[in-house]
Amino acid sequence: MRSRERLVIPFRSKVVEPISLLPREERQRRVEAAGFNLFRLASADVYIDLLTDSGTGAISVYQLGRSMMGDESYAGSRSFEEMRRQVQETMGFPFTIPVHQGRAAEQVLNYVMIRRNSFVPGNAHFDTTKAHIEIAEGRAIDCTIDAGRTSEGNYPFKGNIAVSKLERVIERYGARHIAYILLTITCNSGGGQPVSMQNIRDVRALASAHGLPLVFDAARFAENAYFIKEREPGYKDKSIPEIVHEMFSYADACTMSAKKDAIVPMGGFIGCRDPELYERLKTPAILFEGFFTYGGMSGADMEMLAQGLREVTDVTYLAYRIGQVRRFGELLQSFGVPIVEPVGGHAVFIDARKFFPNVPEDEFPAQLLCAELYREGGVRCVEVGSCLVGRDPDSGENIRPPLDLCRLTIPRRVYTFEHLEYVADVIRTVLEERGTKLKRGLCFDHEAEGIRHFSSTFRYL
Ligand code: F0G
């Protein structure tokens, strides 16, 4: 059923970037040369780029203007103070450590918070998050609710943590072996699904009962707040800034990839409340990122980030953003494309095992679908499934994820709905022409070590 709400688009284009579509034979040649891994394509090979929403958003005239105000002083710049003040205003954290992007925040925070063999339970940790926990010799434990592990069912908050699972983890390992609890809002690996305020509250209560810190991976915090406003009883009449404030009031700290919900090409930060934690974060921040008032960001970047935090919490922007992604999902559904329901905040995820029902599950159907969409229409998307989850660090076995997904990630303020209609048509063609016909998938040609989905290559079976 298509939504009937009227979408108000709160911007118009002033500068455009030309893009073009390569001929079919050329696309075929390039995807083969890339080993069927679209990370290995040049951006000029791609027509519509739905690889990620990270750092790919369009900045506003206000952000561009503010970037001219960047104070590039090494220490204590005015731009740092501007960013710190805005983080405090938006999220309520008095302390901010700038870093160059989200994973750098993870590195710095885990350096301080993880002791050997400690655990970090959470809701489907993002891959860099999980890897950073493991590099610090900790272990990530996924406690997502069971409803978040299937592509069906319209449960409104599929990003929620199952509090009972969390309790069992704490009981089993003992609170002193838990480094912190991590809530990823919205939950990217689970399909861009939100976490409810009630769940945040429940997790906070459990954390407090055991004296544990609660940390947010806040990359898409504003999109999460919009879902709470839309779906959770009691929040319809609250403003987005109010909802954001309440969400963060339950957290001790956050890591932030500003490339998402601060709509900047590069940047991130750690926000925290505890002055002692702030002091302890300074040394690794200096060692890994730069002095603790710039941490890998330029003054211009920090100005744009501060402005981006203001723009992203505008309810008209969020209604357009979430509405565009949802409409795209509904269009795909009207063609019979199996997608994760309900549609998440930043992307539409195709259930590739259902899209290619005859391709064996261990032959990377989602990776195959990504390659097919590029071949068919020059569209680049990304596998979030068997290749990405990798191997179990203890047993070395391939982990079999509950879903093998192809993620069509929508950059912020970049593509019109006509671009997305083109993509939908490409997907429809692949579904109709090859969906049930394809019987074999891909296997590794070269399996990269560690995080393998960026550089591994594949071949047809
Ligand atoms: N946390 C989440 C939930 C993310 O989605 C990402 C990045 C990170 C942390 C790491 O942030 O890229 O700034 O270092 N996600 C991107 C994506 C890469 O395409 O989903 P980063």
Describe, in plain words, how this protein is organized in 3D.
- With 461 residues, the chain is an alpha/beta fold.
- It folds into two domains: 24-53 and 315-460, Alpha-Beta Complex (Aspartate Aminotransferase, domain 1); 61-312, 3-Layer(aba) Sandwich (Aspartate Aminotransferase, domain 2), CATH 3.40.640.
- Helix content is 40%, strand content 12%.
- It is built from 16 helices and 14 strands.
- The protein has helices at residues 24-33, 61-67, 78-91, 102-113, 127-135, 163-173, 197-209, 221-231, 240-249, 275-288, 299-312, 315-334, 352-355, 365-377, 386-389, 417-434, and strands spanning 48-49, 95-99, 119-122, 139-142, 181-184, 214-217, 253-257, 268-272, 347-351, 379-380, 382-384, 405-409, 442-446, 457-460.
- The strands form five sheets. The protein has a five-stranded mixed β-sheet, sandwiched between helices. It has a three-stranded antiparallel β-sheet with strand order 9-12-11. It has a two-stranded parallel sheet with strand order 1-10.
- Helix 3 runs parallel beside helix 11 (299-312).
- The longest helix has 20 residues, at 315-334.
- The mean pLDDT is 95.
- Residues 52, 54, 101-103, 126, 128-129, 184, 188, 217, 219, 257, 259, 268 line the site of ligand F0G.
Write the layout of secondary structure elements.
Blueprint: H1 24-33, E1 48-49, H2 61-67, H3 78-91, E2 95-99, H4 102-113, E3 119-122, H5 127-135, E4 139-142, H6 163-173, E5 181-184, H7 197-209, E6 214-217, H8 221-231, H9 240-249, E7 253-257, E8 268-272, H10 275-288, H11 299-312, H12 315-334, E9 347-351, H13 352-355, H14 365-377, E10 379-380, E11 382-384, H15 386-389, E12 405-409, H16 417-434, E13 442-446, E14 457-460
Parallel strand pairs: 1-10, 3-4, 5-6, 6-7
Antiparallel strand pairs: 2-8, 7-8, 9-12, 11-12, 13-14
